[in-house]
Amino acid sequence: MNAQQSKQLKGTTGWTVRKFASTKYLQYNIAKDKYLANANLRKAISLSKTTGSTATRWKAMVAAERALLEDQGVTPLYYTNEATLVKTSVKGVVFNGAGSPYNFKEAYIK
Question: Within the chain, how many helices (H) and strands (E) appear?
Answer without folding.
Answer: 4, 4
